Amino acid sequence: MEKNASYSPPTIKQIARQLNVSVSTVSRALNNHPRIGAGTRERIQELAKQLGYEPNIQAISFKQKKTFIIGVVLPTIKEDFFSQAINGIEDAATQHHYTMLFAQSHDNLETEKRVVDAMRKQRVDGLIISLSKETNNYKHLESFEKFDIPVVCFDRVPSIKNVHKVYCNLYKGTIEMVTWFFNKGYQRIALINGPATLAASNERLNGYKDAVSNRKLKVDMQLVEASDFSKESTIAALKKLLALKNKPEVIISFNDYVHMDAVQFAKQVKIKVNKQIIFASYANLPITSYTIYPPVISIEQYPYRQGEKAMEMMMKVLQQKSLGNTSNDSYYTEEIVPALVIH
Amino acid sequence: MEKNASYSPPTIKQIARQLNVSVSTVSRALNNHPRIGAGTRERIQELAKQLGYEPNIQAISFKQKKTFIIGVVLPTIKEDFFSQAINGIEDAATQHHYTMLFAQSHDNLETEKRVVDAMRKQRVDGLIISLSKETNNYKHLESFEKFDIPVVCFDRVPSIKNVHKVYCNLYKGTIEMVTWFFNKGYQRIALINGPATLAASNERLNGYKDAVSNRKLKVDMQLVEASDFSKESTIAALKKLLALKNKPEVIISFNDYVHMDAVQFAKQVKIKVNKQIIFASYANLPITSYTIYPPVISIEQYPYRQGEKAMEMMMKVLQQKSLGNTSNDSYYTEEIVPALVIH
DNA sequence: TTGTAGGCGTTATCAT
DNA sequence: ATGATAACGCCTACAA
Q1: % of chain B at pLDDT higher than 70
Q2: pLDDT tens column, B162-197
Q3: Which nucleotide C1' is nearest B64 CA?
Q4: To the nearest whole number, what is the mean pLDDT of chain B?
Q5: Size of interface A-B (CB pairs under 8 A)
Q6: Within-domain flag for B226
Q7: To 5 degrees, how large is the angle CA B139–CA B144–CA B149?
Q8: pLDDT tens digit sequence for A239-275
Q9: Distance, angstroms, CA A51 to C1' D15?
Q10: Residue A200: what pLDDT?
């Protein structure tokens, strides 16, 4: 064991000395530069391998102003949606030999600002982020433009122009789902939506309204409640719906977590879940299969694919950047079509 | 918007030029070095603030051979245990102004080797890892010693000496749990364990055996089955237990995931869960509260705390290293006592 | 084909 | 109290 406090990895300088050539020759040999003698190249590469030479990424990053690190900020990884998304992100990153600086915002704007800033200071080559629920201003993202660091937002995307975007069109998905229930003969379809501040809430609401309107029916806003995603808030919303004279036949929850809390409470108050009232949801997370009443119908939002696309979009942008495509000042948007899943 | 392809952040050199002082003076002023005129310090700090100067971590890392990045490798974040652990890791890192390079091994040794190696190449200051289930040799970890990069293993720790360790003593926890059932009057207690290759399986098995022996009873190995954690394997193990002449009264599963698969199958074959047979488990994950039959009793393994301790241990080690404590060649071990949780 | 030299941003060691 | 200079590892004009 050659452990030694003063051990330091071999450098091109050492190789150069040992072989009585210059550092530039070594550099060229190791980078397979065209203008180099075949013999010298081999000698150098062999010694490099023998010494276990590895280029010092630190030094290269420093010189080339590239780190080969992408910052990834997610609201919270304990939600299955994001823990699946990060797999897509990671797999795509691996493919391109990038690594991932990771942090969670915990749906807190201040935390988001802090971690995003830390990543900028670490000089990440790009930032992939799914915004916190609280995020209502985007200065921390816009500052990346000044530093010429590309930003790809996914799933929870902002309304601003100067970032790239990947997301799932839930407006369409909602129309599909509501229409499906109408076709099955249900009439009173309720929605436990998220906070109105979220773009995702508006998509659902608009889809809901349009699906109802398409049916030549009048939208009854008593059937639409909002939850801030806390269990208490979900229960409060559900209570209001259950208190209606004309009770809903179907309750669609904003996502599977809201769904699970809703079902749990419904059971407590002796509602016959999926008989008296049908419960449906967005997301289609694997854990729901372990629960008592998985949603009867749900909308798959392809978290893995979203993450993967986000990273691939990032790679494409970085590639164009390195080619000096300053001309291309446009921002990409990719829409993923959600799928209706019937259980 | 001053977007500009050739924008580059201010450097101490620029500040020096603007103020007609030398770079060393600027450096000293910004680092609050003692030997500097109060006046110049203020002038420099003011201009720095005005220009939005930020030290270039890249350059500092390069020079000081420190990145302020800790590599974190977990088997899979979709398991609640690890998604909680990473919170502890992240919070502790934030406290110390470190960031986190993250990757998953997906319980695959080759992947683990690959990501660990990528992190070493990125020159992380330290590595925190919870080993993959497959990991049975530790060369990839031992190589870190040569590079003088500290390694802290947590939860799934190896048998080797030259890494720091944080883990939960499940031997003791198992004894507690089994004894608790004996005291409640149950006699035939079964265990669906993990693969024998896992240290965690042996801890459970030894705890189980000793708890039975302590009771002056003979260990009946028909009551111990193994699952490789796939649903099929768990079901196979459960089938064997259910096929016994003398059926078990209690079934303890390796973890909540095995537990959930077991309960799901038990329900399918019309077992009256927690009446005919009591189901217990390790881990006490939050999602179980949404399932039909949460474990009656489970062992809390404090993932957050383990992650937090792992990072704190890392910080302590790095601190000692920077103080030049080469003398201290010892490795830390911290044992967390699990808690019995009764529902 | 190969070597020389300069520079990336910062800190540290000398001088002054 | 301040300045000049070298050094970290690598790359890349430019020179030979």
Answers
A1: 97
A2: 999 999 999 999 999 999 999 999 999 999 999 988
A3: D8
A4: 92
A5: 118
A6: yes
A7: 160
A8: 999 999 999 999 999 999 899 999 999 999 999 999 9
A9: 31
A10: 86
User: How many domains is chain A partitioned into structurally?
Assistant: 3
pLDDT digits (tens, 9 = 90+) for B294-303: 888 899 999 9
Q: How far is CA B249 from CA B175, B212, B291, in A?
A: 17, 15, 21
A320: left (phi over 0), alpha (psi -120 to 50) or beta: alpha
Residue B290 pLDDT > 90: no
Residues A174, A264: one domain?
yes
For A75, the closest chain B residue by CA position comes to B87
Q: What is the CATH number of the domain that holds A98?
A: 3.40.50.2300
pLDDT at B1: 37
**Which residues of chain B neighbour A57 with C-beta distances below 8 Å?**
121-123
Strand C neighbours among A 141-180, CB < 7 A: none
Q: How far apart are the C-alpha atoms of B280 and B274, rounded to whole Å?
A: 9
pLDDT given at position B293: 79
Is residue B6, in this structure, part of any structural domain at all? no
Q: Give the nearest chain B residue to A60 (CA atoms).
A: B62
Contact B147 A7 (CB under 8 A): yes
The pLDDT assigned to A296 comes to 85
Q: What is the reported pLDDT for A4?
A: 45
**Is the domain of A202 the same as that of A268?**
yes
Chain B partners within 8 Å of A86 (Cβ): 77
* Same domain for A270 and A174: yes
B243 touches chain A (CB under 8 A): no
Whether residues B129 and B203 share a domain: the answer is no
A13 CA – D10 C1', rounded, Å = 10
* pTM beyond 0.85, yes or no: yes
Q: Is residue B24 part of a domain?
A: yes
What is the C-alpha to C-alpha distance for residues B194 and A122, in angstroms, rounded to an integer? Answer: 41
Handedness of CA B76, B80, B83, B88 (dihedral sign): negative
On whether both B34 and B143 belong to a single domain, the answer is: no
Q: Is B283:B299 a contact under the CB 8 Å cutoff?
A: yes
- What pLDDT sits at residue B294? 80
State residue A209's pLDDT score. 97
Q: How far apart are CA A123 and CA B78, in angstroms?
A: 28
Q: What is the DSSP letter of B6?
A: T
CA A14 to C1' C6, whole Å:
20
Partners of A290 on chain B (C-beta within 8 Å) are 260, 264, 287, 290-292
Residue of chain B minimizing CA distance to A1: B146
In this predicted model, which residue has the larger pLDDT, B136 or B238? Answer: B238
CA distances from B137 to A103, A141, B157, B201, B250 (A): 30, 43, 12, 17, 35
Same domain, B179 and B256: yes
**Residue-range definition of the domain harbouring residue A213:** 170-300
CB contact under 8 A, B3 and A148: yes
A110-153 pLDDT per residue, tens: 999 999 999 999 999 999 999 998 898 999 999 999 999 999 99
B175 and B262 belong to one structural domain: yes
Q: Is residue A3 part of a domain?
A: no
- Which of the residues B1, B57, B69, B78 would you substitute to probe the A interface, choosing the one with the greatest number of A C-beta atoms within 10 Å? B78
Same-domain check for residues A133 and A178: no
Helix (H) or strand (E) holding A114: helix A109-121
Instruction: List the CATH number of the domain containing A29.
Output: 1.10.260.40
Query: What DSSP element (H or E) covers B281?
Result: strand B278-283
Residue at minimum CA to C1' distance from nucleotide D1: B36
